[in-house]
Amino acid sequence: MILVLIIAVGGGFYLAVRHRQRIPNVILISIDSLRYDHLGCYGYGRNTSPNIDRTAREGALFETVVSSTSWTLPAHAALFTGLPDRVHGCLDERHGLDDSRLTLAEAFKQAGYRTIGFFSGPYLHACFGFAQGFELYRDCTSYSGEFLARTKSGTLLDDRGIIGQDIMRMSHDDITNPIVLRAVRAWLDERPGGPFFLFVHLWDVHYDYIPPSPYDTMFDPDYTGPVNGRNLAGARAKPKTWTRRDVNHLEALYDGEIRFTDDTLGEILGELDRRGLKDSSIIAITADHGEAFYEHGVHGHRWTLYEEEIRIPLVVRYPPTIPANLRIRHPASIIDIAPTLLELAGAPTLPGATGRSLAPLFRTPDGPWEDRAVVCELNVPLFGIHAFALRDSRWKLIYDLRWHRTRVFDLLGDPREQSALVGDASPFTSEEIDGRYERASRELEEASRRMPVGDRRDTPPIPKVTEDQLRALGYVR
Question: What's the distance, Cα to Cα, between the start and end of the chain in Å?
Answer without folding.
Answer: 45
